[in-house]
UniProtKB/TrEMBL annotation:
Active site: E287 (proton donor), K422
Residues of the BTB domain: 71-137
Example GO molecular function: monosaccharide binding
Recorded family membership: Belongs to the GPI family.
Protein keywords: Cytoplasm, Gluconeogenesis, Glycolysis, Isomerase
GO biological process, one term: glycolytic process
Protein name per UniProt: Glucose-6-phosphate isomerase
Subcellular location: Cytoplasm
Catalytic activity: alpha-D-glucose 6-phosphate = beta-D-fructose 6-phosphate
Pathways involved: Carbohydrate biosynthesis; gluconeogenesis; Carbohydrate degradation; glycolysis; D-glyceraldehyde 3-phosphate and glycerone phosphate from D-glucose: step 2/4
Annotated HAMAP family: G6P_isomerase
Amino acid sequence: MISLDIKKTLGFISNDAIATYKEPIHKAQEALENGSGKGSDFLGWLHLASSTTQEHLEDIKATAQVLKDNCDVVVVAGIGGSYLGARAVIESLSNSFDLRLENRKNPIILYAGHNISEDYLFELLEFLKEKRFGIINISKSGTTTETALAFRLLKKQCEEQRGKAIAKKVIVAITDANKGAARITADKEGYKSFIIPDNVGGRFSVLTPVGLLPIAVAGFDIDQLIAGAAEMEKACGLDVPFEKNPAAIYAATRNELYKQGKKIEILVNFTPKLHYVSEWWKQLYGESEGKENKGIYPASVDLTTDLHSMGQWIQEGERSIFETVISVEKVNHELRVPEDKENLDGLNYLAGKRVDEVNKMAELGTQLAHVDGDVPNLRIVMPSLNERHLGQLIYFFEIACGISGYILGVNPFNQPGVEAYKSNMFALLNKPGYEEQSKAIQAKL
Ligand code: PA5
């Protein structure tokens, strides 16, 4: 089971200060449970893991098998909550260098619809030429421009390349039950489709088909992922005492640090496999808390890589940061430093040691240095990187986010701020229905 260690924050905030959150956090959890808080129509994620049926998982696995049987590459088209969760889990568990196309057990997963870069899309379409590829089109609203644009291009190429009949088999839609262009297209074309529940917002949707289908196509165990999340659901339940509830302690600690002027939380990893877990986490916390002119700014670094760039800022820059380190206890492979007769690089003192031992000492050394540099340090310990522990981590962050948002006094389940760029972009592109905004924006230029 993953665990949380806040000892290295206690020189900055006290246990007594953390204990003052006991009551407010209990109230926040009650509000989540009985739906009496802000944004209560978006609480479908709260007991999603424990209520997921085996039948639902088997349906997802059967669809994943169709894509596996018919594709060497599957493109996940989606943005924000409609791709980050899947990518976080897939990249955490994948062999980073297994890029071959032949004799694959599972398709390569690529991503589109999360940018509007013409070069990115052109190069992707070039790569897909003559490849047996499929598409998972994910959009809750079904109208997101980035995703719709990428899907239009991908669908056309898939149909031209593979024929309409195969395309129908290898294109899957995950969208709203009734509304949106993605739903209309899926129904008209007869694609297999999955529904994103109304009461689950994008950034809380990784344990719905939004995350589960791509993860299953990539060959990973969605039963274990859900089981892990359900375990954490229990460990963070309303009946669990404050001191024993890791999500409550995390929410309390980060909110107290924020109160003490630590405005930026940096999520830290020591393996590049967790890079997209940080991207997913940044969306979860950034979109949930950053509103009404408040909220911790969620940032991230990949170490030791970024110790050679951002490390300077973290060690000696403005003291407005704290760190949350995801520490993976046991790696999946073994590699030892070889002995070298000449020892020109001076590394023989490490000969025979595991590479991970060097990494662990870098991690410990970094923690001590940063704490000495006045950076409070929380540590989430993952026994290993597998589906079960990732499921636990996902739910831990989700429930802590809901609690934390309520403690902050905001609605953690909306994202009104993301509309501003969209209406400007539509006005600038003269989208029908935006005539007035178009005139107004042209006057500003
Ligand atoms: O968290 C959110 O709701 C957003 O980031 C969405 O996931 C993102 O904007 C994509 O929206 P949609 O799934 O409607 O295309």
